[in-house]
Amino acid sequence: MISIALIDDHPLMVEAVTSLLLRTGGFQILATGGSADDVLEICRTTRPQVMVVDLNMPGDVYAAITSTVTLEPSTKVIAFTAATGVEPAIRALDSGASGYVLKGSSARELIDAIMASVGGETYITQHFASRVIAALRDTSLRRRAAEAVKLSTREQQIVRLLLHGKTNKEIALTIHISEKTVKHYMTLLMQKLQVRNRLEVVIAAQKLDARSGTTALHS
């Protein structure tokens, strides 16, 4: 069981997320709250593994996040917000959040963010992550954010073949899938990397690879 605290000043949102997590299984809701003051108080009294925190609440939520991760480093904080701007995301990560999930995301993304944070990873809503990475100036934060944009094994295969100038048809033949499926993956890659065409897919993937310090795309 992963212990969770939910802090959001919209009761319907708290109820919906609580229902989602209990329905999914493997999660225990220890406490709920509705303000920045509740973030630190709940951390002190219940010490959950993960706190899902709205950013737009009464009080200084960013300061509360910093105080929480300082008080209890084993507690991970996920910012769960409707704020789609890059600045709130950077402030949240800089304050110590382990995840940034937009409320317009799928339920699966919130669950993935919780699991990633428990595993010591950083998670950012996938279609939003590349914008955050581009805006980050802090090297360590940029590396953490870059690591949050993870390409599947199949996506990595396709990017490697794109690097070699392969067409969609050639890619399909090489990895034994249909050309239609290749086009589907290209659409996913463009959405995930926030780019407009196949050339920009390659450029963005190379940048992410370099920033995260991995060699996944070159193996």
Structure, explained:
It is built from eleven helices and six strands. The chain is of the alpha/beta class. Strands 2-1-3-4-5-6 form a six-stranded parallel sheet, with helices on both faces. The radius of gyration is 19 Å and the shape is elongated.
Provide the helix percentage.
Answer: 55-70%
Order of helices and strands: EHEHEHEHEHEHHHHHH
Strand order of the largest sheet: 2-1-3-4-5-6
Number of strands: 6
**Overall shape:** elongated
Low-confidence stretches: 211-219
Q: Supply the helix-strand structural class.
A: alpha/beta
Largest sheet: 6 strands, parallel
Taking the alpha carbons of the first and last residues, their distance comes to 37 Å
Number of helices: 11
Radius of gyration: 19 Å
**On the 0-100 scale, what is the average pLDDT?**
84
Topology, pairings included?
Elements: E1 2-7, H1 11-24, E2 27-33, H2 36-46, E3 50-53, H3 61-71, E4 76-81, H4 86-95, E5 99-102, H5 107-118, E6 123-124, H6 126-135, H7 139-148, H8 153-163, H9 168-175, H10 179-193, H11 198-212
Parallel strand pairs: 1-2, 1-3, 3-4, 4-5, 5-6
Helix pairs in contact: 2-3, 6-7, 7-11, 8-11, 9-10, 10-11
